[in-house]
Each structure stands twice: as structure tokens, then as C-alpha cells.
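ERR on first pass: missing label on line 2. Operator R.T. fixed the label and resubmitted. Corrected input:
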Amino acid sequence: DAMVIQNPRYQVTQFGKPVTLSCSQTLNHNVMYWYQQKSSQAPKLLFHYYDKDFNNEADTPDNFQSRRPNTSFCFLDIRSPGLGDAAMYLCATSRDEDEQFFGPGTRLTVL
Amino acid sequence: SQQGEEDPQALSIQEGENATMNCSYKTSINNLQWYRQNSGRGLVHLILIRSNEREKHSGRLRVTLDTSKKSSSLLITASRAADTASYFCATDAWGSQGNLIFGKGTKLSVKP
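pass 2 clean. output:
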């Protein structure tokens, strides 16, 4: 089945220790998104790749970076995680501006 | 900034009853989408309604859109315990390249 896969599902890191979350898709969608969702809050868009073009939301902290080495994979790098970065990170994909398909998310804990 | 606001924030009903959730937004939109999220899981796309549509159905779901009032509603008929989840509306504003802005969600609890 075509899908969006996120690894790992649960990630524990230490304060200040870099961490990378990964997302892969078999849908061959050209757009990939990263959202941050804190407890009991709405998902908030961090950035997205439209094909190879990277689009950063204005209020996304510099601490967050992304890489998309090919169509299928996209990574979220958190250079120096703080306690406030503990959240669920959701990856989504779409064909142009059509409906978005979400992965199951990675829950990040920062100790 | 938050675009969509759902109302109510929480809704508790009995199995078999209908559930209605509302969403209001601020700017002109290309489309509005509803998603469901089970606790601790990813979001599942339910339905997309375009700005030139007024009503859409999918199974037990009915979505309406009133662009003059900048509001939408999601109706779940004959609810089941498995419908228990959070429901989010998300707007795709004109010129946003498909970027969605989510509301805070309605937490629906359906009691058997």
C-alpha cells in the first residue's frame, strides 16, 4: 500500500543533542511537509518542499532544518533541542496542492 | 497565526446520535479540509471542500461551507464509539501553495 512512513515513532534525546527524524513516502508526491504538534494543540507547519524548492515558515526557529535528498525522503534536523521542542512531529505529502497524506508521527521527548 | 477555530472544543455524545462541529476562518481560501486524529496518532484526511462548493458528503460525513460567513461545519451522523477522536479543520488559503493552517480541533467522545 502506498503510504507515508516516519521513523522512529518515538525518539528520546538529551537537551542540546542533535536529532534527526525521517520521513519516506511511496506515493510519489512532489510536495512534502513537516508539522510540529504540541500536546492538545493544532499541528503547526514548520516548512515544506515543493519539488526541490524549500519553503520555510517565517516563525520556524533556526534550530530546525530540513533536507530532501530525493523525492521519497525528507529529514527534519533539530540542531540543539530544547525542552520546548518536545512534541509530535508529523510528516505529510501531497500531489501539488491536493489533499495531504500524513504519516503516523514521531513523538520527541527531550530530557 | 491561527486561521481556523473549531467550536465546540469538546463534545460528548451517545452512540447513534449526530455530532456537529463548526469551524470559522479569517481569510479567503482555496479549499477547506477536515481531518481526524486518534490520540497520539497521525492525521487522517476526511474530506476536502473547495471554495466554490457548498456541501459535500462522504459516507456518514456531511460538510458544508459558507464562504460569505467564512465558516464550515462537519456533521457525523449515527455516531459510533470508533468515531471518538479529535477533529481538525484546515484551510488552504489562496496563494499559499497548499500550506494548511489548522484550527485547534474539537475533541469528540462517543459513549457506547
